[in-house]
């Protein structure tokens, strides 16, 4: 699976000729929809038949940029450039990849030279190897042969020590341009219980306690959801912190580095008593979406899919690490979901 934010909900790869469901925002390759549903295709998430080409959306420029950088671009017939005479001299290239002076078979798409590790296959990377081997059978819709080739490829590369095209990211939360973010809530105040994606607090005291992640976002656009549990008796504070140097037996938004949607209908920053009106009032129903754009330094929220507006814009939200946080009181709990795309309607409003 790629991590661009433009993945097809069917094949989980970068969506080619992307189609967006106008109801729920799910994205698909046009060919995937056509292969499964024919001309009358529908969204597998919400069963809507209303789609729009990404070229007609506000995501067009971001999508084109990702598509240009990707080695697996639009599925069209490619006339591969002939290989040049392979020179013996090995040249140094950026990003720690050992290349030789001849074009990859897929050069018209990837614009890379042959990787020494794939000299026999005459390609630059695993991506191009798979593309060159599988594309002819995709055109023919020969899925049995595709499965066979994948098995053969997996066996042939099992013993290869592959150097990636791109350097590994530093230890930080995986990020994307459009919200496919994965993280774990793994640090909490005493009394909070973490069981996979479900977080609960049950105690007699009426003091806020915070649960957060031990690793922060570094850059990019991020989206995740907080879903209050029915057992929740008190409002919670949901948001982010630009620091992890504080007592988790307090609410993160009590400090100047904490930013929270307090579900009494307020936004809090640097105070345990005062804030401005923001959002809806609720305790144990619905779901909250958190949208963080570190490119612009903007934090916003949604409730039940409805965009609540930008809560704050600050240069302090442009620099990582930034940690997702929730503060719970007395008897409260929630489930969190991450690694999910931003719904199209929210993203378009958020980026305005």
Give the second-level CATH assignment, the architecture of the largest domain.
Answer: Sandwich
In total, the number of strands is 21
Order of helix and strand elements from N to C terminus: EEHEHEEHEHHEEEEEEEEEEEEEEEH
N-to-C terminal Cα separation, in Å?
A: 29 Å
Please indicate the count of domains: 3
Q: What is the SS-derived class?
A: alpha+beta
Give unreliable regions as ranges: 71-100, 161-179
- Give the overall shape: elongated
Rounded to an integer in angstroms, the radius of gyration calculated over CA atoms is: 24 Å
- The total of helices stands at 6
What is CATH's topology name of the largest domain?
Jelly Rolls
| Amount of beta strand | 25-35%
Reported for the largest beta sheet, the result is: 8 strands, mixed
Helix content: 10-25%
The fourth-level CATH homologous superfamily of the largest domain is SPRY domain
Q: What top-tier CATH class of the largest domain fits best?
A: Mainly Beta
Q: Which whole number gives the mean pLDDT?
A: 79
Pfam family, one: SPRY
InterPro entries: B30.2/SPRY, B30.2/SPRY_sf, ConA-like_dom_sf, FBXO45-Fsn/SPSB_families, SPRY_dom, Znf_RING/FYVE/PHD
Protein name: B30.2/SPRY domain-containing protein
Organism: Paramecium tetraurelia
Provide an overview of this structure.
There is one protein chain. The protein is built from six helices and 21 strands. The strands form four sheets. Strands 7, 9, 10, 12, 17, 18, 19 and 21 form an eight-stranded mixed sheet that branches. Strands 8-11-20-13-14-15-16 form a seven-stranded antiparallel sheet, with no helix packed on it. The chain is of the alpha+beta class. A hairpin with a 2-residue loop joins strand 9 (192-195) and strand 10 (198-202). Helices cover 17% and strands 26% of the residues. The relative contact order is 0.13. Helix 4 runs antiparallel to helix 5. It has three domains: 19-69, no CATH class; 90-157, no CATH class; 179-350, SPRY domain (Jelly Rolls). It has helices at 30-37, 60-69, 107-110, 126-140, 143-157, 344-350; strands spanning 19-21, 27-28, 51-53, 90-91, 99-103, 113-115, 179-180, 187-188, 192-195, 198-202, 209-212, 221-228, 237-241, 258-262, 266-268, 276-277, 288-293, 298-303, 306-313, 323-328, 331-337. It comes from Paramecium tetraurelia. This is B30.2/SPRY domain-containing protein.
């Amino acid at each position: 699976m790629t991590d661009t934010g433009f993945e097809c909900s069917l094949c989980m790869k970068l969506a080619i000729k992307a189609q967006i469901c106008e109801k729920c925002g799910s994205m698909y390759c046009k060919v995937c929809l056509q292969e499964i549903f024919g001309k009358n295709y529908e969204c597998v998430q919400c069963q809507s038949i209303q789609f729009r080409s990404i070229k007609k959306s506000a995501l067009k420029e971001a999508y084109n940029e990702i598509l240009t950088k990707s080695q697996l671009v639009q599925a069209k017939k490619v006339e591969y450039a002939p290989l040049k005479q392979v020179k013996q001299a090995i040249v140094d290239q950026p990003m720690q990849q050992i290349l030789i002076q001849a074009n990859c078979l897929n050069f018209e798409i990837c614009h890379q030279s042959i990787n020494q590790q794939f000299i026999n296959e005459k390609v630059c990377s695993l991506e191009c190897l798979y593309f060159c081997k599988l594309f002819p059978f995709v055109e023919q819709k020969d899925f049995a042969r595709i499965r066979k080739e994948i098995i053969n490829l997996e066996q042939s590369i099992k013993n290869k020590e592959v150097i990636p095209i791109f350097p590994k990211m530093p230890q930080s939360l995986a990020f994307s341009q459009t919200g496919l973010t994965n993280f774990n809530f793994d640090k909490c105040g005493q009394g909070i219980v973490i069981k996979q994606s479900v977080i609960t607090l049950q105690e007699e005291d009426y003091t806020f306690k915070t649960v957060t992640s031990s690793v922060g976002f570094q850059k990019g656009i991020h989206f995740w959801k907080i879903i209050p549990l029915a057992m929740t008796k008190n409002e919670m504070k949901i948001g982010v912190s630009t620091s992890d140097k504080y007592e988790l037996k307090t609410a993160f938004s009590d400090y100047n580095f904490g930013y929270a949607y307090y579900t009494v209908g307020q936004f809090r920053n640097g105070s345990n008593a005062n804030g401005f009106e923001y959002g809806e009032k609720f305790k144990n129903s619905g779901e909250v979406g958190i949208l963080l754009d570190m490119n612009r330094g903007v934090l916003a929220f949604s409730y039940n899919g409805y965009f609540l507006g930008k809560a704050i814009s600050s240069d302090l939200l442009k620099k990582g690490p930034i940690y997702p946080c929730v503060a719970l009181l007395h008897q409260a709990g929630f489930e969190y979901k991450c690694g999910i795309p931003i719904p199209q309607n929210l993203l378009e409003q958020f980026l305005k």
